[in-house]
Amino acid sequence: MYVMHEICSSVKNMKQLDFSVLVRRANQIKEELKQGVKKPYRELIDVSWGDPHRTGVKPLSFVRQVLAGCLYPQLLESNRLKVDVRQRAQRLLETCAGGSVGSYSDTAGLTQTLKKVSEFITRRDGGVPSHPDSIYISPGSQWSLTNILNILVNPEASPKTGVLVPAPSHCVTTQSILGLGAEVLPYYLTEEQGWALQVEELQRAFDSAKGVCKPFALYIINPGNPAGGVQSRKSMQEVIKFVSEKKLFLLADEVYQECVYGENVEFLSYKRVLAEMGPPLSETVELASFHSASKGLIGECGLRTGYVELVNLDPSVLKLLDNLFSTNSCAPVLGQLTLDLMINPPQPGDPSYPLFYEETQRIRTTLIQNVRQVFEVVNSLPGFSCQPVEGGVFAFPRVYIPPKAIQKAKEVGMEPDTFYCVRLLEETGVLARPGSEFGQKDGTHHIRFCIMTPQHIMEELLRRLSIFHTKFMKEFS
Amino acid sequence: MTSEQDVNPTVRGIRTPVNLQALAERITEQISQGEQKPFERVYDVSSGDPHRVGMPPLTFIRQVLAACLYPDLLKDDSLPVDVRQRARTLLDVCEGGSVGSYSLTYSGIPLIQKTIAEFITRRDGGVESKPENIIFSSGLERALSLVLHLLSGGEGQTRTGVLTPVPCPHTLPMQLDEAHLEQVSYQLLEEQGWALDLAELHRALRTTRGRCETRAIYISNPGNPTGHVQDRKTIEEVIRFAASESLVLLVEEVFQDSVLGQEKRFVSYRKVLLEMGEPYSKRVELVSLHSLCTAGMGECGLRGGYMEVINMDPAVREFINILPCSGSPPILPQLALGVMASPPSPGDSSYETFMQEVLHVERTLSHNARRACEFLNGLPRMSCVPAEAGIFLYPRLDLPLGITEQAQMLGVEPDVLFCQRFLEEEGVCVGPGCENGQDDDNFHIRICVLAPPAALEEVLTRLRSFHLRLLSSCC
Fold this sequence. Notes:
The structure holds 2 protein chains of 2 kinds. By secondary structure, chain A is of the alpha/beta class. Chain A has helices at about 10-15, 20-35, 50-55, 60-70, 85-95, 110-125, 140-150, 170-180, 200-205, 235-245, 270-275, 280-285, 315-325, 335-345, 355-380, 405-410, 415-430, 455-475, and strands at about 45, 135-140, 160-165, 185-190, 215-220, 250-255, 285-290, 305-310, 385, 395, 400, 430, 435, 445-450.
């Protein structure tokens, strides 16, 4: 009898995702392709993650050059790397203890990096001040989100803690919430209005907690994942008024803030909107904003770095949060330095600027083109529709799965959109994620795929998807 | 507004860290701003962080990682050919050929799992390790945290307890707090070179009856901070104890590469367990932890670690596999671990340089450990058990009454006060033993002795100066 058999009960709440079934099959197919098994396609297109390097987007040269220089400072002794690269690497190494990326930093992060992050935030927010003491750098934004939730959620509490979470929303947060022993209260975004948030729906979700749990926090993703909407200032103000009224802690996941495409669309941070609403709201609403080096044009998911900024927290609560963060030594130093590069890119006049500009422009142009293509292609197919993607790196089109297919899915014990994704994978080698994992209105089905891919990959993907979709709809008509 | 009372009681229960390191940083910052201090620079030797005080990294590792990060370097002839080959092999197994992608599974990159498993098998004289039992993490603490959380449960009398050595690694107590685990202390025997005593294990376990449900025992071997190396006989005793009391073995073995002198040999818990045969080899649940923070590598800031799980419930193992992958460990440290497990071989272009650098670390550590131990034993009211391995010395202090009284008045632990004043007056940061779980009047400090010898001399000189001054002012 195993001692570790009796896993902590909350941890048991985290469910096995359908997606792992898809991943396993995808890996098998990869093996089969390697061994020369004949398939209607030569390679997989894996757009199931928000992982641009996986799909073939190239990393930014400046970033990689500086990091290489930090890792192996001998590179800085020759002229192999441009002078601004060398200077930046030198400067960054000076901020590391012992001049090495192998030393620990302080728990919250390298002092200089924290300072730079706070300056970046202030700049981004039109002057709204930010202080290094309210910022924690972490190995990935999810880690700091889980820690904040850990503060707010008491697994032994009765009634349970509740967290309002958007539907659709990426599943990692939902899993974290369940794993901590709290309840998830979904609030449904309005698909027909570009996945807009309605305050009445927030109210409904809040009210649904009666007798079930006590709502403590509201989690919001802006720009959305997987729904690609970007909130207007007005909408954000409504959310802020709502959380103030209901005394909810606002958790603002803003990791996709670099990825905004809409023509008249602008990303505004919750911190800025809150500050500009003035007192009393600006001084009382509790807010945690999350950002990451994984998302955006820099796309360095594998380096795993993010940060959280805290606003209006009770100092004694901040102290406890500090203790909690101290249970892990520090975020990887290379990742911390990557943050610095993300927020302080080369400027016009720097030797690296032309290449940097060219690379980022290429990614940006590709993204805008991809977004447009997806919108056109998907909306031209019957039984398929897609809201305009204003931000983020995903498309979340709706699939109008026919009743016969729904029936078939039931027979094989799958969600209808999982069934769709399984068939899509088998027949076309495209790996997307089923909407059922993200939360969606009953009776609706979606798939999610990453749109941050090289252009030729997106074209190929849409080609395969169109053929498959038409065939699928015909087969089950 | 969320107040302290609203916060999760488990989080409220996490002890406040002493964090002299932050004070050390602040003082360094002040010096750089031109503030006058009685010393020119700060030496922080409180953590196992050799690069901090000037130990160099291993060239091969850094070259390979740099090439992985910036593959343009592969076209460069200035990098040795084996470096370029290794980088190519590693990049091939990264998604999209980039270290910027996520790993496919929560456990990590399969090729690296295989490399580690092969390393373990070789190290343990052929006792086979399976790649699927290797799980990577962003630093040893994260791997340990995962396991601690899986063990955690219950409240009050049913709360899970973990047998924990005193002294233990200084990061451990807070981790136990965070996972809501009861720390059940078992005293290591200073008079016997910090050996583990079976009778003491039994005694500690007996105290938990009715207090908590002890389900695991934590071992650090070679000991952090004690430097003690357990012999096979002790390891077998512990394993039998764990078996009879149904305890999971959590074994941290980071200093395995730094055994000093010829008398003792490191032998891994898993090797002993598997060689004991059944029923132990099939029943005892063991988690072995390792990381990049070894003496040779010292790559603490890269944050890379792994655990090997033996006899883990398959359902639990599977559960770890399906954890959301964006919790997955960073790629670069996994590659670093892979290189650590598979260094250059004789004949490779980098082999000579690599061996020179490794030998340099070994000699420095050996020299420093001996020098520092003699030095400390030569100071009044201070005694130090020689380290058999690892990078710390853990001397005992007989603190004068003046300090203990002052500490009481200020509401801090006496050893913390000693370390704080030492830092403020002499610019050296050492670790107070209370962080290592020492909670009686048996005061200790921990000092990382893996440093350039000149730096160590400076640290020792300042320690003597402070310590003698303290004694003369208090006595």
